[in-house]
Each structure stands twice: as C-alpha cells, then as structure tokens.
C-alpha cells in the first residue's frame, strides 16, 4: 500500500475515533406529536440534553473548508456578536426579560433547546451553545413548522441531513433533505414576528417570497451560499477524507450579506470583502436633470438590480442606506449638498434614507424592535424595483455637475458611540453605487 493510502486510512480512523469519543448525540425519543403553537410561543421547547448537539470542531475535521468559512460567519458569532449583545441586554432591561426567548432562540438555538437558556446572560452555556448557529443545528433540522421565529424542528443524532442524495460518510449517516435546498429553511429564522403585536420585525423571507426571484425558482441558498454576488458555482469536494465526490458546486458557508464592517471587526477579512462585493452588486443609480428658471431639478433613480429581497433587509431599523448628493456650478462652487457626514461621522439627518421604522404603543416612532406595535415608516427598494427622488435646487449658473452616491452602513455611528462609549470607533460607509451628470 502506498504512503498516500496509509495517510488517508489513518485520517479516516482518526476522524471516526474523534466523532464517537467526543459526541454521543442521543435524542430523546417521544411518540407525542409536536404541539401546534401560536406565533407568540417558542417553536420547540427543551427537548434535548447538553451535549446532544455535536461540537462544530468535530465536523471541521473532515469538512475543513466549510468549517473555516462558517467560523468567520455571523452564524458562528450569533450569540457573542459585539453588536447583538448590547442590543439584547437593552431589550431585556426595557421589557423585563419578555423578549429573552424570542431573541435567544434564534441567536442561541442549541442553548434554548437544551435548557441552557434562560438565564439570558449565557452563564449556563456550554462551549457548543456559545458557538451560535452551528453545523449540527442546521444539518439535523428535519422540518419547518413555521416560517418565522426559528420555526425549524431539530432532530440531533447520528443522521446528518443535506442537499445530496448520494453521499457516503465514514463517520455518520447521511440523508437527502429537499428542505435544505428550499428558501423556507432560511425563512424559519429570517422572518421574525413580534410576539405581542404580530408585526414582522424582520421580513426577508416574505420579501423574497412575493418577489420575482421566488417565481423564477432562485432561492436564498443560490445567492448566499455561492462564491460571489448572484448565482454562481463553487466546484470542489465537501470533505477531505473518504471518497467524497468532486462536485460542480459545493455550497459555501460564508453566509455573507452586507455587514462588511462587522466582519472586519471580527477579523473575517474574506467575509468582509465578499460583503462589499454584494453591496456593490445590489443597486444601480440613474440620473436625470433639467435646468429651471431659478436653478435645476435633479432626479435620482435607485434600482435594486442584485438582491432577491428589499434593500436594505434584515434589521433595517438599525441599518443606514442613503443618498449622498453634491452639485457644483461651472465655477467649481458647491451649490447643494445632501447626505454628507458631519464632524462626528453622523449622516445628515435630512438625507434621503431607505429603511423601516416602527411605532410604539403611544404611536411614537422607534427603532427599537421590541416596542414595535406597527410599521411607522417603510421606504425600501424591492427586487428589480426602483425608488425615485427629485431634488429641486435653487442655484445660480448655467452649467452644473451633480455627483450622486448610494451609501450603506451596518449600523449608525450614534449607536456605536452608545454601545462603546469612549472608544472612538468610526463606522465606515460602503459606496454601493455612484453616478454623475452634467447639465
């Protein structure tokens, strides 16, 4: 036998030993059907013991590239994220803990289902629970009961579910799952409904469902588990051991959206670059202009050309996406500005923003999702849709040049200043699109 074959055989034996010695997932057996739950109730209560879900590092022994991509993702840091935790603690304080299960079930699903959450400070978490939305949680999901509020049903154990029907693993059983190729798998978490008011706090799945991409059969996985923006291919093998097949496409596990700054803060530079690519591919600017008796009219058309959901999406009450406009006359003088930063890195409050805000019980606007009783403002751009804004500018001159940029930040500077007092952390803006017109 060649040295190479000996090395492969040794690797297989090592992985088998690691899996069976470090795990031992034995789901509780029950003959009771799952309860029918209302939108205000958690989908799945405590059903498993700590240790029933597998440590993702064990999965990484074979699925090395997939593990590395996941490790730098926001799924891996969903519980420990430096932006999530301050927001979560504020929500707990301001609701006397009422939203603990709602937020905690999504950001720490294993802890919730193994009885380690509550308490909501994470003090009872084991290491597997602290690793957020990990391999064994997703790949043991057997069904989706509701397409919101973490409405997936887990069945941890020796069977791992995925999008292939011809896989043979030397260390665990595998089972083909059509669900893992469907957008509703993602919709179970990426729709969040307020437990009291019923308001959809996050509606990414619903955005996709009513849009053109769903009608064309393009799913979340087709775009967010590929090498770059849009639908692409990632050829290769999913495992470094055994007889894993060379495939035309292996789903990437970067799970990148548009949060480039957060990835940079996490040290996930590759993820950050991919997020910036997504942002730059999402929108297009088209400008129209005409001179008037006392100046000019500038029309800005912003079209969603690359996202299968509205932009921005997700926690849109935190995101900032806006239009920056600079108009200069033929003397090189700036005659109009909108959407620029001030000295403290805050966006001009009179800028044109694309976002969604809520109203609380008193009818006041709020960006705090836990107080959402209704939608107070919603201006976002649907897939292949266009939003138009016209600026009527009073200025002297016969020739003008307008430069327009569409900019994005994961979170406002004010929110970062509040969460990290005294640290002077500046939030950068990403230029999604740019256009210029002279008239």
What report would you give on this structure?
This protein is of the alpha+beta class and 439 residues long. The protein folds into 2 domains: 218 residues, no CATH class; 157 residues, Immunoglobulin-like (Sandwich). The chain has 15 helices and 17 strands. The strands form 6 sheets. Strands 9, 10, 11, 16 and 17 form a 5-stranded antiparallel β-sheet that branches. A 3-stranded antiparallel β-sheet has the order 7-8-15. Strands 13-12-14 form a 3-stranded antiparallel β-sheet, with no helix packed on it. Strand 9 and strand 10 form a beta hairpin. Helix 13 runs antiparallel to helix 14. The termini are far apart.
First-residue to last-residue Cα separation: 76 Å
Class from helix and strand fractions: alpha+beta
Radius of gyration: 24 Å
Which shape, going by the Cα principal axes? globular
Given as residue ranges, the uncertain stretches (5+ residues, pLDDT < 50) are 1-43
Question: What count of helical segments does DSSP give?
Answer: 15
Number of domains: 2
Q: What is the subunit organization of this protein?
A: single chain
Range of strand content: 15-25%
Main beta sheet, described? Answer: 5 strands, antiparallel
Overall mean pLDDT stands at 89
Helical fraction? 25-40%
Report the strand count: 17
Task: Outline the fold blueprint.
Blueprint: H1 3-22, H2 56-60, H3 64-71, H4 84-94, H5 100-107, H6 109-113, H7 127-130, H8 135-138, E1 141-144, E2 152-154, E3 159-162, E4 173-176, H9 183-187, E5 191-193, E6 200-203, H10 204-209, H11 212-215, H12 220-224, H13 260-266, H14 269-282, E7 283-292, E8 295-304, E9 320-329, E10 334-338, E11 352-353, E12 355-359, E13 365-366, E14 374-379, E15 386-394, E16 400-409, H15 413-419, E17 430-438
Parallel strand pairs: 3-4
Antiparallel strand pairs: 1-2, 5-6, 7-8, 8-15, 9-10, 9-11, 9-16, 12-13, 12-14, 16-17
Helix pairs in contact: 13-14
